[in-house]
Design goal:
Layout: E1 2-5, E2 16-19, E3 29-39, H1 41-47, H2 52-55, E4 66-74, E5 86-90, E6 101-105, E7 109-111, H3 118-122, H4 125-138, E8 146-150, H5 155-166, E9 170-175, H6 180-185, E10 190-193, E11 206-211, H7 218-221, E12 225-233, H8 238-248, E13 254-257, H9 264-275, E14 283-288, H10 292-300, E15 307-311
Parallel strand pairs: 8-9, 8-11, 9-10, 11-12, 12-13, 14-15
Antiparallel strand pairs: 1-2, 3-4, 3-6, 3-15, 4-5, 5-7
């Protein structure tokens, strides 16, 4: 099969499109013909060696976490899927979606939404699960609460705005001037242009602040959090780690960070919201798998709006 492989950490040029052996599945896995994947910031952070404490130095390595495609084969313990099923999900900790075939745990996938293309579906899992789990599992979002999403036009942010609205919150979105119209179309009740206004210096207070781009600290957001407000960061910085420990044991404002967990039940819930027309994917560009290096470079530029999809031929 064809795949994009790295044999060392480095620039986008280390991504090599080549022939490799297809993966062998374990009893609890599916072999999936990948129709589409996408680029998440974690992909190029791994590629650059920024997470080598976690990923180690075991090469060759196939990156990529999100995927959508068709089931080719199922392991002996798989009960919910059969060959031919269209699925979407997250490959899991080891990656492997930048390929024509991928081995995926059954617990990490769900049936693909019927009203999405493969590219749209592949853009959902990591970003939408991050947003959903941050809002629901960590912030315990309630109907009528006020939620601010910082970085509302990015991959996690576009889903966070829609999910917060679907869960009955009043949403304030923070983005750049050029993305105000898009973010408003996603359902934001109020949009703050960060080039004109610093939300941390405003008078409005929020029950939940989701910093989807990790550009503001808990300390800078404290004064605009309500007395029992919750701040959630998508990047576990040393400060956030320390603040999350300190605030866990005392009443009042809380700092937390989200590490997305692939869960089929959450993907099924997102599928319901998608098929009900409450969530859609925002795709900036679609690249073919052969041009993955260019897709990584574009993601690193931090100019992308929503997601960068990768079409896998086959």
């Amino acid at each position: 099969m064809k795949a994009v492989v790295i044999r060392e950490y480095g620039s986008p040029e280390v991504l090599q499109y080549q022939e490799v052996e297809p993966p062998k599945i374990k009893p609890d896995q599916l072999l999936v013909k990948v129709r589409a994947t996408c680029v998440n910031p974690v992909d190029w952070k791994i590629r650059k060696g920024m997470l080598k404490l976690i990923t180690g130095n075991k090469f060759p390595m196939i990156l990529g976490f999100d995927l959508s495609g068709d089931v080719v084969e199922v392991g002996s313990q798989v009960t919910r899927f059969k060959p031919g099923d269209a699925i979407y999900g997250n490959v899991g900790l080891l990656g492997g979606a930048y390929a024509e075939l991928a081995a995926v745990p059954e617990k990490s996938v769900a049936v693909k939404p019927t009203n999405m293309t493969y590219e749209e579906a592949a853009s959902v899992p990591v970003a939408a699960l991050t947003a959903l789990q941050a809002l629901q599992d960590l912030a315990h979002i309630q109907v009528g609460q006020t939620v601010l999403v910082n970085g509302a036009s990015g991959g996690v942010g576009t889903f966070a705005v829609q999910i917060a609205k679907a869960l009955g919150a009043e949403v304030t979105a923070v983005c750049s001037t050029k993305n105000i119209e898009l973010v408003s179309s996603l359902g934001a009740d109020r949009v703050i242009d960060y080039s004109q206004q610093d939300f941390t210096q405003g008078t409005a207070q929020y029950d939940i602040i989701l910093d989807a781009v990790a550009k503001q600290s808990f300390s800078s957001c404290k004064q605009v959090l309500k007395p029992n407000g919750i701040y959630v960061n998508t990047l576990p910085t040393p400060e956030t780690l320390m603040q999350s420990v300190l605030t866990a044991f005392i009443p009042g404002k809380k700092a937390k960070f989200i590490l997305e967990t692939p869960r089929s039940q959450d993907l099924l819930y997102l599928k319901e919201l998608i098929e009900a027309g409450k969530i859609r994917s925002v795709i900036d560009r679609t690249f073919p798998l052969q041009e993955l290096a260019a897709a990584h470079a574009y993601s690193e530029s931090e100019r992308a709006v929503g997601k960068i999809a990768i079409a896998v031929a086959g």
